[in-house]
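This part of the workshop introduces the protein records we will be handling. Getting from the letters to the C-alpha cells is the skill we practise here. The record below serves as our worked example for the rest of this section.

…
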Amino acid sequence: MAKYESKVNYIPHATAEQVYAKLSNLESFKPLLENIATNPLVRQKIEEEGQDPKILEQLKDVKLTADTITFPAPMIGSITLEIIEREENRCIKMQAANVPMEGNLWIQVLPVSTGGAKMRITLKAELNMMMKMMVGSKLQKGIDNMAAVLAQLPYQVM
C-alpha cells in the first residue's frame, strides 16, 4: 500500500473541536460550496495560480451527505469518499468508493497548547508500481493542497 502524508498544517483561528465538528459532518460544507463557485475572489485566485476557473463549475456536481462526498473525476466518472470511522476531536477516517483501487484517507486534528489546532491528512492507496509512478506525485500534491485548503477554512462561521 502506498502512503502519502500532507505536511502538518497549523490552524490558528479554530480549536480542534471546531475543526473536527465541521469535518466530521460533510453536510456542513454545503453553504461553502454553494458560495465558492460564484465568488469572484476565488475565481481571481485560481486564475493567478494558473488554473482554469472552469473547475469551479464542477462544484455544482459535488453531492454531500453527513457521511459522504461524491465529486466528478476525469476519466473515472465520480469518486465517493465515505466516513467509516470517527474518533471524536481527533480523527476522521474515510474510504474511497467508485474508484479502480482501494484506498483510505485520514484527517487527523490535534489541539495546540498555544491555541488553535494542527491537522495532517494521510492517504493510503493500493497502487501497483506503474500506477505509483504515474500518479504518485499527483496524489502527494493533491493531499498537500487539500490540507492547505482545509487549514484556511473559516471553521467558526461555517
About this structure: The mean pLDDT is 90. The CA atoms of residues 16 and 155 lie 10 Å apart.
